[in-house]
Amino acid sequence: MNSLTELKGDATALHLAWSDGVRHRIEWRTLRQRCPCATCANPPPSPSPASGLGLLPVITMAETLPLKATRMRPMGNYAYAIQFSDGHNTGIYSLEFLRRLGEEASSTP
Ligand SMILES: [Zn+2]
Fold first, then answer.
1. Is the pTM of this model over 0.90?
2. What three-state secondary structure class fits 22?
3. Which residue spans within 1-109 are E strands per DSSP?
4. Which residue, 7, 2, 19, is CA-closest to 72?
5. Listed residue (94, 99, 96, 28) closest to 65, CA to CA
6. How many whole angstroms from 81 Cα to the centroid of ligand 1?
7. How many angstroms is it from 105 CA to the middle of ligand 1?
8. What ranges do the domains of the chain cover?
9. Distance 102 CA to ligand 1 centre (A)
10. Is 47 exposed, middle or buried (0-12, 13-18, 19+ CB in 10 A)?
11. pLDDT digits (tens, 9 = 90+) for 68-86
12. Which of 60, 66, 77, 90 could be a cystine partner for 37, CB 3.0 to 4.6 Å?
């Protein structure tokens, strides 16, 4: 498996360089949406929408702010725990998962 030779974040995205020379850029928002933690993988059922009233979906304050990581912590040699600016911090991103997200991100124009 490839290892990381470089890992850095800017205001909008995480930049990765892999041992095989491939470089990826993954937006924090994408990382947050694809959070692999148990809570995000199995979200609690959302309250039933007020159907037929044409209400707009409620957007919380956190969702209106630009999302970024506030902290990244290595978990052994194979994964990183990312804390996001919305306070979420239970996602553990394995290198394998980051690589897959990076490949998906670069295949979309
Ligand atoms: Zn999560």
1. no
2. coil
3. 4-9, 13-18, 23-27, 69-75, 79-84, 91-94
4. 7
5. 28
6. 10
7. 19
8. 1-38+67-109
9. 18
10. exposed
11. 999 999 999 899 999 999 9
12. 90
Looking at 3.30.450.180, 2.40.160.20, 3.30.2020.30, 3.60.140.10, the CATH number of the domain 1-38+67-109 comes to 3.30.2020.30
Q: Which residue has the tokens 């295949």?
A: 107
Pick from 40, 35, 7, 8: which is nearest to 91 by CA?
A: 35
**Ligand 1 centroid to residue 90 C-alpha, Å:** 6
Amino acid, single-letter form, for residue 101: L
* Closest by Cα among 46, 14, 43 to 30: 14
Which pair of tokens denotes residue 54? Answer: 């044409």
What's the half-sphere exposure (Cβ side, CA atoms, 13 Å) at 48? 2
pLDDT digits (tens, 9 = 90+) for 2-47: 899 999 999 999 999 999 999 999 999 999 999 999 999 887 776 6
